[in-house]
Design brief:
Blueprint lengths: L22 H17 L1 H10 L10 E3 H9 L3 H23 L4 E5 L2 E5 L6 E5 L8 H14 L3 E5 L5 H10 L3 E3 L3 H10 L9 E3 L4 H10 L4 E2 L7 E6 L5 H12 L6 E6 L2 H15 L5
Parallel strand pairs: 4-5, 4-7, 5-6, 7-8, 9-10
Antiparallel strand pairs: 1-6, 2-3
Length: 285
């Protein structure tokens, strides 16, 4: 069996860093955004079809009843898993929300303080295609719904049934079946039938990240999410199966993701290798 882990001694560790945004990705995203702003649905559809987001002539949006149908027709085990996971995220989000409270404080001459108000429209992006992440759909849409957002627009290119079902379980109102910079442009500027969104959240590839950067002056964003990097620091007492799952959970995001295990135990590293091999057998991504 070939090792899945690539052993690296400390002296040989690559400590170089990459910029969070690539200049070429920014240039590509800028042109796509400009085209979508100028041409609206025609450009959104053109780019979506070119990059394989949607089939020629397919609808750009998948409505709530279709999302629900995707959830209803999932195998029972997957449907229950989505609902159970959404409920766990919801409970945590509710606990977080309860910690954020309005404030009114008496000062000389009056009152000072703040209120806590949700935005009206949120866009929640989840990667699709080779690296679908229904988990991102759950973690963004459920949180937005708990925050009190009125309208939640999901977006994911070439969405699989599991992604559509996750959008339903998470409470999305509809889903834009296009991704990349073209989707970010439509959501930020309210084009091609998409409402103008107050915020765009969720991870994506380098063109999605570049597009979020470019529209951040007109639409709030969560962050600029680069390729996934994960470091697990573990000794011989750690559970090899849990470590392997954590490493794979990041590795499946992107071909340039960097999941790293730091350990002083060769026995643990070997056990993690065995677990990686075992878990990869039934991991579709």
């Amino acid at each position: 069996m070939k090792n899945k882990l690539n052993p690296i001694a400390l002296a040989n560790l690559d400590t170089s860093t990459a910029p969070p945004l690539e200049e070429q990705a920014i240039a590509d995203a800028r042109k796509i955004i400009a085209d979508v702003r100028a041409e609206g649905e025609a450009a959104l559809r053109r780019y979506g079809e070119r990059f394989g987001d949607i089939e020629k002539g397919a609808p750009l949006f998948i409505e709530r009843d279709q999302l629900q149908q995707a959830l209803n027709t999932l195998p029972a085990a997957q449907r229950d898993l989505l609902k159970r996971t959404a409920e766990r995220i919801r409970r945590f989000a509710e606990a977080q929300r309860s910690c954020i409270s309005p404030l009114s404080f008496r000062v000389e001459g009056g009152q000072a303080g703040h209120t806590v108000e949700p935005v009206e429209v949120a866009a929640c992006y989840a990667p699709g295609g080779r690296y679908p992440l229904p988990s991102s759909m759950l973690m963004t849409c459920v949180t937005a719904r708990v925050a009190g957002v009125q309208t939640i627009i999901a977006a994911s290119p070439k969405p699989a049934q599991l992604t559509l079902a996750a959008a339903a379980a998470a409470g999305a109102d509809r889903l834009l079946a296009v991704g990349g910079a073209q989707a970010i442009a439509a959501l930020a500027y309210g084009l091609a039938g998409a409402p103008r969104c107050d915020i765009i959240v969720g991870p994506g590839n380098k063109w999605v990240t570049a597009a979020k950067h470019l529209v951040s002056s007109v639409c709030a964003i969560d962050m600029l999410a680069g390729p996934s990097e994960l470091v697990v620091i573990a000794d011989e007492s750690a559970h090899a199966g849990v470590i392997a799952a954590d490493l794979l959970g990041q590795a499946e995001h992107d071909v340039v993701a960097r999941p790293i295990l730091i350990t002083t135990s060769k026995k643990l590293a070997d056990a993690v290798d065995v677990e990686l091999e075992r878990q990869l057998r039934d991991l579709p991504t």
